[in-house]
User: Fold this.
Amino acid sequence: LIYTHSHPRARLLDIRDARSGIFDYLVSFGTTTSVATMAHMLGAVTSRPTCSTPVAHGDVRQRQTTRVGMRALGSKKSSAACGETWRCMALPKSVTDRRSRAGTRNARLACNAVATTETPTVTKATAGQKTAVVVGAGVGGLTMAGRLARAGYKVTLLEKNILVGGRMQSYNPPEAPEYRFDTGPSLLLFPEVYKKAFAALGAKMSDHVEIARVEPAAYRAHYGDGTKFDLVYDMEVMRRQVEEFEPGAGGMFVRFLGTARASLDLGVAAFIEQDSTTALDFINPKRILKLALAVNPLELLLPQIYQMKNYFKSPKLIALFSFQQLYVGLTPYTAPGVFSLLAATELTDGVWYPIGGFQKIRDAFLKLALDLGVHVRTETDVDKIIVVQDGDTKRATGVRLKSGELLEADVIVANPDIPFVYQSLIEADALSSVAIAAEAARMDKLEYSCGVIAYNWCLKGQIAGLLQHNVFLGSDYKASWVRPWEVSDFDAPKQPNFYVHNPSYTDKTCAPEGCDSVMILMPVANFQEAADAAKKAGRAV
Assistant:
């Protein structure tokens, strides 16, 4: 659920499934009009008015409609379908053809690997070689397709959109192509994980992508009262800053960081890299023994807010070391304490950024997949994944496209969000449909992360008070984590937390010299939360 009520052309944009985080729309407005709270808090950054004039209009980029068959990336014979035309419009052909240099490079890389056909066919497994179909060419789909191909499979990668990469996209507005925005991830953590992903495809990351550590600070925190705090990598400087905010807390910060680092070193293997399907997984001695010996288990499993209060009394410090939940769609009241590992990796391993934008990582994974022989088909919408009962197990046998084409394979990989897969993609036979329907119903009852409002501004000038990564933290700690669900939730003096990305601070290719490309991201309530809030208030959403 994406709210744009603060804009003069207020619209409520419905997306396919905001609850599972599938953002089929990128909202970007070419206007300085914003919510009063945002303007108030940004005012604490700088009083200079020279950076407030945008040079590009915004747009809403909708999911492309499906056409029969498939087309080569970069083909000029077909274009993206238009949605309803208004001031913030779905991109027509003239805009899509020049949507970005990154898109053009993406197209050129893959166009030779994709065949074009207008007649539905049935593709069967090739004798002597196992086959695989990967649904969804996000980063996970790209890397999985490459790994399967490297393992000897004949791989077909299906993507409904015109570009691969899923949420990992960079965007140059057609009206101002010299500006670039990352419309998905905007910071790179755990660079070793990326390096392992490249190694699994037989490549070195450094040969394809240049990454730079964000300096001099991982973040700048801007508080609602106008004060600031830079999260720097020098621990002694950090200790002194913390001590200034709360006498006696400098030593507690060192203790907190030690605990958070232990959560990182041991918790990733125990929790992040393994599935946890029941509560028993969190108390399995084989998984948590080493971690439990290093860190109080209650600090790991209880909500993070309880962990924070064990170390700090100042609401500003509690906010400072828990704001990371902002960009994973959680809050300190819902995220377990083990998520403090995010603060640990940012302050000890650093926050990184790919020079040239996250499109560089996307394009590198695409090139490697193509080099390994993966057959990439874009604008190819999957209707159903076919599942049959095979003895005591359920087995996926193929996928059927919206065009009617059937692709059979030995292995089917579904890369979209799991709730969407169970609720909308799986077509089961009579024997297995009951179990799949039950799983879909279970997932429908889960709590999901937030929706967002995203503004992308092309600025003629620079904002002196911004570093690359900036978080704006409201003065009322608890209230600042309540996600807005109606227009009045943005009214001053309310100060919901939000994030500002200013990549040109590190990467000068993001904007013309002396200018900035700034993204403002505000978490808002998802459908589920908005419905619950409206019910409590006794009115419709």
